Amino acid sequence: MGIKNLLIKSVKQVLLSALLFTGIKPAEAKVALPACLTDDMVLQQKAQVNLWGKATAGKPLTITTSWNNKKYTATADAKGDWKIKVATPSFGGPYTISFNDGEALTLKNILIGEVWVCSGQSNMEMWVSGMYGDVLNAQQEIAAANYPEIRMIKVDNTISMQPLTELKTKWSWRACSPQTVAQFSAVAYFFAKNLYEDKHVPIGIINTTWGGTVAEAWTSGEALKTMPAYAPAVKYFESGITQEKLNKEYDSKLAAWTSEINAKDQIDAQGSAPWAKSTFDVSAWKKMPAPGLWEKGSLPNFDGIVKFVKKVTIPAAWAGKDVVLSLGSIDDNDITWFNGTQIGHTDGVFVQRKYTIPGNLVKAGENTIAIRVFDTGGDGGFNGGPITISLASNADEKVDLAGEWSYLVGSKLSELPAAPQRPDGPNRPTLLYNAMVNPIINYTIKGVIWYQGESNANKADQYSTLFPLMISDWRKQWGQGNFPFYFVQLANFMAQDAQPVESEWAELREAQLKTLSVPNTGMASAIDIGDAYNIHPTNKQEVGRRLALIAKAKNYGEKVAYSGPIYKAQTVKGNTIELTFTYADGGLKVKGDKLSGFAIAGADKKFYWADAKLEGNKVIVSSAQVSNPAAVRYGWGNNPTCTLYNVADLPATPFRTDTWPGITVGKE
């Protein structure tokens, strides 16, 4: 073989190797599509929908849509990227879309209908059955879920410091059936079911959710740089810092911090503590009821460490057998011992504690449970029950641990060094937007439903700026104008207040209410369908229905009530305050024995529970303890009693008539 032929052969081999290395076939390469463009997907009806993907640079491809047999042509750019818009008709299907650049690829069983993104934290993420528990009547709902024209795709829980374009999903588009619905987002499913049963239009849900996450994580860096509280973090991520480096720095800081904190509580390197042992005398310790939050009772305004001890009598038949300690949720972090041996350690206020205790630790008669609770702000203690110890082999055999616990106050938070922040979690500015939103912004949608806010409650005042910013940011990134954005106002949760108090959750609900000033938004109140002991209330059917009511009224032309009464104005008349409301057409009504949930104050800002009565479409509020009233609050608490409704059986939204600074002002 001549030199010339050898050179030609060598060049061809190099080019072939390069093409194979990049994953592109050297001839007639099949078009590569993103993970959200697959069989069984739903495309938005009556729209110019985006199709996009990868192909050989500079090579034309033909796209054919079966609903009109129209052919479109696209050519990949120098990076191999291509994108076109195709026209969709009114709802229908199934259809196919074919892609051909010399090798054919066809997507099948495509429906055209309405596409909604569902997003937020755990109350949107919660499945019909399994994740965070079951919804009401879960098994009946699953058995009846035969809706092949409702379809869903789930974005993987992923973080990234830079915006991603490739979607990660282990759950590609699939139809709703008794075999698949259990792992659907419950709120999204019931929203889609309500719309489908009314309109019989296919519904597609893009589920991008992650429990316990904050709104700033779901907002783009571009938008967050306009907020001084988040701009430095965004710029830091944009600098190119690696996760590996952050993890190493954190591990070192955490080890030093943990040693320092544990030394104050006499916890040794093996995790044992003298005060957790059965032989330790706690007779001089004070008593506190559990479950219960200490800032509501024994320790107002205390943040820091409190040690709890409870003596429990174990039946003789349980000796030597595995048992399960259930503590409900704890605010915020706990380390738990049984007879002096550490059996569990959990961080996070909303996490249900359930620790299995091996039988070799279990003895007949008196046993000792010891818990160190570390509250990092807000309420502290046992957030909700029941708290029990039961046989692992038979959960019905249990001992109730509710009642008096011995406690000893440890270090105040102000006396402790600040804990290092985890560098690998999702609750950092822009990381979820980058990984779980940016990859889907090309997908043409109808709108968004959103359920989030619990994790931002400690910064509720800031949320009144952050949440509208996030909405406008998503609309800008999608480039579809002011598409519908409907959200759920936080449900009632935690212990009820004996007297009117300030509340972070009430302030967060107020921030959500204020967000209705953003065009084309809607809010479904859940103030009457929560659970004092469960941050994941099980009546997701009603949440989905109320969201669907908003869509029916605002997007599908139905004359249907979609909002409960919303405070409009107050008029002071002597020793009473007269309140008027919007969304009270047809009249107001009371559910229950009496109109309750109102508090009233004078200029001294001291609130008292109020007497309230209906007069037509107005509420008249007064109290014998307030002769010159200045302000009224309704439903102002973590778990308020609220009995004001409109005739459509939708609850009045919690509100206040004052503008006095709340407890979250200035918190960032």
Automatic annotation (TrEMBL):
| Record domain Sialate O-acetylesterase: where | 114-234, 430-548
Pfam families recorded: SASA
**Keyword tags:** Hydrolase
Q: Which organism is it from?
A: Mucilaginibacter gynuensis
State the superkingdom: Bacteria
What name has this protein been given in UniProt? Sialate O-acetylesterase
InterPro entries in alphabetical order: Galactose-bd-like_sf (IPR008979), Ig-like_fold (IPR013783), SASA (IPR005181), SGNH_hydro_sf (IPR036514), SIAE (IPR039329)
**Can the keyword Hydrolase be found in this entry's annotation?**
yes
Keyword hit for Signal: no
